[in-house]
Amino acid sequence: MSPFVNALSISILATFLSSVSAGTIRFYPNAGCTGTIFQCGEINAGVCCSTSNVYATVKLLDTWDCTINAWSNYGCSGAQSGSAAVNECLSPSFAILSAKYFTIDHDNDRRDLNSTSSEDCVKPDSIVYLDDNNVEHTIRIPEGRSAVYEALAIEGDIATLKELQRRST
C-alpha cells in the first residue's frame, strides 16, 4: 500500500474519531441519577455545562476514556467534586450547578480545568423524561429558554413542556 493511501486512511480515521468524541452530560434531581434529566448533548471535552437550578447527581454518556467533574457554582467554579468515569453516577456532597468532562490524557480538552469564564459555558439543550412504560422521551430546549423549561420540568409539568415542543415544531 502506498504511503499516500496510509496517510489518507489515518487522516480519515482521526477525523472520524474526533467527530464522534462529543459526549452528553446529564443532570439529575435525585440521588442515584434518577428523575427528569437535564442534559447538554453533543458537548466537547473541557466545555462547561451550567444549569439554572441545582441538581443532586450527574452522569457522562456517549463517549469513552473520559472522566466528569461537578461544581457547586455556575461556570464550573466553587466547590469541585471528585471525578467519575463514563456511565457512572457522580454524587458529590453538595448541590450541582455545573459540570464538564475531560479526556483521560486531556489532549482533546478545549478548556482548562479551572476555567470560570461565562463564555466557556453552555446551557442544557434538552430534557429527558421516562413515560409510564419506562421509555425515554426527549424535549429540545429552544435557545434562550433553558430556565423556563427547567422550571417547568422541576415542577413536574411535562404536559406543558410537550405542548411547548409541539408548538415549536
Summary keywords:
3 helices, alpha+beta, 5-stranded antiparallel beta sheet, signal, globular, 169 residues, single chain
Largest sheet, if any?
Answer: 5 strands, antiparallel
Q: Figure out the total of helices.
A: 3
Radius of gyration using CA atoms only: 18 Å
pLDDT < 50 stretches: 11-20, 111-118
Q: In percent terms, what proportion of residues is strand?
A: 35-45%
Shape estimate = globular
**Can you list the strand order of the major beta sheet?**
4-1-2-9-10
> How many structural domains are formed by the residues?
1
Structural class: alpha+beta
Order of helices and strands: HEEEEEEEEEEHH
Helix content: 10-25%
- Give me the count of strands: 10
Concise description?
The protein is α+β, with helices and mostly antiparallel strands and 169 residues long.
Strand-helix topology:
Blueprint: H1 3-19, E1 23-28, E2 37-43, E3 48-55, E4 57-61, E5 66-73, E6 77-85, E7 96-103, E8 121-122, E9 126-130, E10 136-140, H2 146-154, H3 158-168
Parallel strand pairs: 3-8
Antiparallel strand pairs: 1-2, 1-4, 2-9, 3-7, 5-6, 5-7, 9-10
Keywords: Signal
Signal peptide: 1-22
Molecular structure report:
- By secondary structure, the protein is α+β, with helices and mostly antiparallel strands.
- The chain has one domain (22-168).
- The chain is built from three helices and ten strands.
- The chain has a five-stranded antiparallel β-sheet, covered by helices on one side. A five-stranded mixed β-sheet has the order 6-5-7-3-8.
- Strand 5 and strand 6 (77-85) form a beta hairpin.
- The protein is globular and about 45 Å long.
